[in-house]
TrEMBL record:
PANTHER family: ALIPHATIC SULFONATES IMPORT ATP-BINDING PROTEIN SSUB, TAURINE IMPORT ATP-BINDING PROTEIN-RELATED. InterPro entries: AAA+_ATPase, ABC_transporter-like_ATP-bd, ABC_transporter-like_CS, ABC_transporter_ATP-bind, P-loop_NTPase. The keyword GTP-binding does not apply. This is ABC transporter ATP-binding protein. It holds the Pfam family ABC_tran. Keywords: ATP-binding, Nucleotide-binding, Transport. SMART domains: AAA. Gene3D superfamilies: P-loop containing nucleotide triphosphate hydrolases (3.40.50.300).
């Protein structure tokens, strides 16, 4: 399901189309030296097919939130549901993209993408077909047999994206995926990611430190406060579905959303 961001439904997703539900969650880490409350009072509902960006000061629990959705971490309190089911342990049906591409140096781009299929025991003909589709979709055609050291940072990140999408996950979790890229490559990756999201219909939760990136990409932006992290505000992005990168920056909806996020983050940082 895809809804224009400006519709009221985009701000209050309909229950039956909910993909991710986080209900009154808290996460506490107990270490030898101290107890850290990473998250408290976090509730968030993400509709199927929605693109949600998460921003907040360093250490506010953004990565922790993604780990909860993937089942890598259990909440100390509250519940997390994915496609209507409680997340009981690590989920195999999600896709995860990290800040660094984490590719195997001794495998070609295609073989790195197919690693996902090998780990899941996917039929190899289906996996190869899907890999070719993704290679074309991300503009990697011609570089299938190149090794990671022969690829640029942006290309490596595209390989990681293909690997995460190979099994058609209903949810793609992205933790600062473009943080290590130069500004121009990052822009191009933003444009590509938005196009891929529209083509695949995957629900995306993306953590970023870039406010323009969050607003350009997302339907809604979750703004988190400093530790112990909680959701400060959910900002609906009032921009058309079809977003030209350059033109979007001069849209009133873009200025409104980025301005509001900056105000909230400024307050969060000064209270840190
Ligand atoms: N396994 C762990 N054990 C103990 N404390 C942890 C653990 N994982 C995270 N924390 C703590 O929880 C808090 C939130 O961490 P998290 O990595 O989610 O922050 P973040 O918002 O992703 O930060 P950044 O923007 O720097 O990546 C931090 O104070 C961190 O030290
Ligand atoms: Mg993090």
């Amino acid at each position: 399901m895809r809804m224009p961001a400006s519709s009221p439904a985009a701000q209050a997703p309909v229950q039956m189309d909910t993909c991710v539900e986080i209900e009154d969650v808290a996460v506490r880490f107990r270490t030898k030296r101290k107890d850290v409350t990473a998250l408290h009072d976090v509730s968030l509902s993400v509709a199927a097919g929605e693109f949600v960006a998460i921003v907040g000061p360093s250490g506010c629990g953004k990565s922790t939130l993604l780990k909860l959705v993937s089942g890598l971490l259990k909440p100390s309190k509250g519940r997390v549901r994915l496609l209507g089911e409680d997340v009981g342990g690590p989920r195999r049906d999600i896709g995860y993209v990290f800040q660094r591409a984490a590719l195997l140096e001794w495998r070609s781009a295609r073989k790195n993408i197919l690693l996902q299929a090998e780990m899941r025991g996917m039929p190899s003909a289906t996996a190869r077909e899907r890999a070719d589709e993704l290679i074309a979709m991300t503009g990697l055609t011609g570089f299938e047999d190149a090794y990671p050291h022969e690829l640029s940072g942006g290309m490596q990140q595209r390989v990681a994206l293909c690997r995460a999408l190979l099994h058609r996950p209903p949810v793609l979790l992205m933790d600062e995926p473009f943080g290590a890229l130069d500004a121009l490559t990052r822009e191009n990756m933003n444009i590509e990611l938005r196009r891929i999201w529209r083509e695949t219909g995957t629900t995306i939760l993306l953590v970023t430190h870039s406010i323009p990136e969050a607003v350009y990409l997302a339907d809604r932006v979750v703004v988190m406060s400093a530790r112990p992290g909680t959701i400060d505000e959910l900002i609906p992005v009032d921009l058309p579905l079809e977003r030209d990168y350059g033109r979007t920056m001069s849209e009133p909806g873009f200025a409104r959303a980025t301005g509001r996020i900056r105000d909230l983050l400024g307050a969060a940082t000064s209270a840190d």
